[in-house]
Amino acid sequence: PLISLMGSRIQLQEAYVSIKRVFGILDSPIEIDENLSSTKQINKGKIEFRNVEFGYTDEKRVLNDICITFDGGRSSAVIGETGCGKSTLSSLIYKLWNVDKGEIFIDDININEYSVEELRKKICIVTQDAYLFNDSIRNNILLGETVEESKLDYIIKCAKLDKPISSLPDGIDTQIGEKGIRLSGGEKQRIAIARALFFQPQIIIFDESTSALDNNTERAIMEAIQSSLKGHTLVFITHRLSSITDVDRIFVISDGRVVLSGKHDDLMEESEYYRGLYERSKVGNYILDESKIIHG
Prior knowledge:
It is a single chain. This protein is of the alpha/beta class. It has helices at 2-26, 86-93, 116-122, 137-142, 149-158, 162-166, 185-199, 215-228, 264-270, 272-282, 291-295; strands at residues 47-54, 63-70, 75-79, 101-106, 109-110, 123-126, 203-207, 233-237, 249-254, 257-262. The strands form two sheets. It has a six-stranded mixed β-sheet with strand order 6-7-8-3-9-10, with helices on both faces. A four-stranded antiparallel β-sheet has the order 2-1-4-5, covered by helices on one side. α5 packs across α7 (185-199).
């Protein structure tokens, strides 16, 4: 016991350092603007960026004078090279950061006039790295809610989870481990997509959410998403242009600016840059030649 008591001093010092770090985060000031008394609600889900500028540091801008409108109840896509600011758009919509300049509107109301609770309730972001719990597939989809088995079966089929689940020992009640360690990357992403299909918020942003899937599975899931979520505002952020050819509008971002926008067929006809980008995406080559933007 005396030897253990001597060693406890080291354990206490280690705990003290960890406690300081935890409370350093808990005590840090909230920097985002929050309207706690707001009763405004998101209905159609129209999103509009008006001359938005943003940077994570003062030295470098990520977004420069961004003007984009995602029509309510329609599907849109945002494409561009890595680091161009695509995912930052979703973080700003979700109000993880305040914009440095300009304004963001949802249903023609500045997002600062909504409560954060309303934004988080009506907006869902399905990311490349799915947030999963050490629980069953069922509970990771429903998150404590209840649903009829027929509806859950439909959602599972839409997310193309039926075959993977049928091969598991306990089916949909199989425990997937911490962060879904017992599943493949594609299966994790499909669970996250199934979760979005179940809760069906008005605005759903798919941020590289199918990057671990093969082309055929991705295409089938994209068709199921657009069929099941008609009337919802869908925003796809992706490198695979072949999966977004049917969306209502595509925005191409380069160096934090919108350089092209339009429907897939129109862009293919009018822009050499977009045609090259589309062809390279089919073979997995995502290197962009920005010199073609001007001539495209």
